[in-house]
Amino acid sequence: MSFKRMATIMGGTFGLVAAAPxxxxxxxFIMHILIMCLIWxxxxxxxxxxxxxxxxxxxGQVAFFAIGAYSSAIFSVNLGVPAVLAMLLxxxxxxxxxxxxGLPCLKLAGPYVALVTFGVHMTLMPLLRGKIGMALGSGGSxxxxxxxxxxxxxxxxxxxxxxxxxxxALLLAMACxxxxxxxxxxxxxxxxxxxxxxxxxxxxxxxxxxxxxLMVFALTSFLxxxxxxxxxxxxxxxxxxxxxxxxxxxxxxxxxxxxxxMFPGTILGAFITVIANxxxxxLGTYRAxxxxxxxxxxxxxxxxxxxxxxxxxxxxEAPAA
Amino acid sequence: xxxxxNVTKKFGELVAxxxxxFTVEDGQxxxxxxPNGAGKSTVYNLITxxxxxxxxxxxxxxxxxxxxxxxxxxxxxxxxxxxxxTFPSLSVAENVAVGxxxxxxxxxxxxxxxxxxxxxxxxxxxxxxxxxxxxLGKKKLMIAAALATRPRLLMxxxxxxxxxxxxxxxxxxxxxxxxxxxxxxxIIIEHFMRVLTELTxxxxxxxxxTEIAFGDPEVVTSDPRVCEIYLGEQSAESN
Lengths: 321, 239
Ligand SMILES: Nc1ncnc2c1ncn2[C@@H]1O[C@H](COP(=O)(O)OP(=O)(O)OP(=O)(O)O)[C@@H](O)[C@H]1O
Ligand SMILES: [Mg+2]
Hints:
The complex is a heterodimer of chains A (321) and B (239). Chain A has 321 residues and is an all-alpha fold. Chain A has helices at residues 3-24, 28-53, 61-78, 83-105, 110-129, 131-136, 162-185, 187-197, 199-204, 209-235, 245-258, 265-279, 287-301, 313-317, and strands at residues 150-152, 155-157. Chain B is built from nine helices and ten strands. The A-B interface holds A 187, 190-191, 193-194, 196-198, 200-210, 261, 314, 317-321 and B 48, 50, 68-70, 73-74, 78-79, 81, 85-91, 94, 97-99, 101-105, 129, 131, 142, 145-146, 148-149.
């Protein structure tokens, strides 16, 4: 897909979303859902970048999100770092963890990368709940309950004033996804695709697998860490509940709905999934079942996700082009 | 230009390359032949840094042992693979551009990319996905991408395999043009003796990773030990 078409889809989506407060600005529940959509749009897009474009089956996306949220909260609560700076530091810290997780993955085949990265996810909950986590300020099984909101020039972006916070989230999501768009269309993106398609051929043509794989780990964990940090400051409290499987599965649904390797499809996927999830709420415990069935049907009928509707027939044959 | 000194590669118990030494001179077309499993492709994988090994390989006097594949490519050694490799997510032109952008960093030139594509005869497929290429097209694409790195040494791994007589002629002309007109030294692994005797200046025959014969192709191909190895393959060559 061309840069122009990707940018148009993104611009159109964000443009529509930006107008939402005009109609539903005073319905708190809906504003909250829209903010969450924007947050998940970034996390899902990062997942698509590393999995769909770079072909690295990293299942550490939620772990990176949690690392970003926790580190930013700890920086601001325990060290008194201003929220905006704490978010940036949290992003850098998460990127560092991402690179450390990426290093052992470099030589591993796909399924093992999935295991290693999901292993990080699995260890995070006991770590945060245990003594080490407590010592670092994770709040154990209770979590961190007093995360200060983002404050710029004395104005605070919290759940108390949802419309400005929504626009803050919108700008942040636009910035993060714009970075992803530019990277995909730069020679980095070409290197990612080349390494995914044939690592040997790519290396024989001068592409450093080491450099670009670590770069994609660093970049996606940085952006995921920053948006995770934003989540913490927005909600005001975090706990290890975010590491339970339902969020992980919902995110996977977003990527599948958006189309794997079909960025910016994940942005649409995030909105569709979050809204569908809310609409299905009356089904109670059957909701997960219906969502699961929808995924199976989608994968079979729309392998390119919602982006399948936008693709020309020729492009549909070469995903992620 | 390229020298292997006592290079040995073991895969567990299996000795794939056994104490092999040879030198390729600047400007040569250098042939390597041997039966299936002789270790020919493994020699390429060692030269291009895909596996660690014992011994030493130098390129233009510089020790390249232990360098990663992308560094070796950037130093000017390009290769093709026995089984065609392409990037299906990218168009033909983008595939070739990868070689130019990453194999010759800082000197990316879209005109040069286009020139190499038309040199191998793929202009008509410039914007196509690689899935639309036939076997010959994919081989040409690998050669174009390799040339796009601006190599001084190009290593071809059985470029003729699976081609008919006309295609073999075409590929032979292409190889000669790469060598004569572009001044690129070539190593070619090939099963077809006729191709090797016509193209190469020096021919190395290996079996189970060990050198069997080396020298002028006419002399080497009449060596009784080489004839013995190739007895079964002579008939395959005639079709
Ligand atoms: N990565 C590897 N791991 C284990 N064994 C290998 C590996 N690569 C090659 N071998 C073995 O090394 C030996 C030499 O293989 P190689 O592919 O170099 O032979 P070749 O001369 O290119 O044969 P062919 O004419 O069939 O292409 C074979 O026995 C092969 O099975
Ligand atoms: Mg071989």
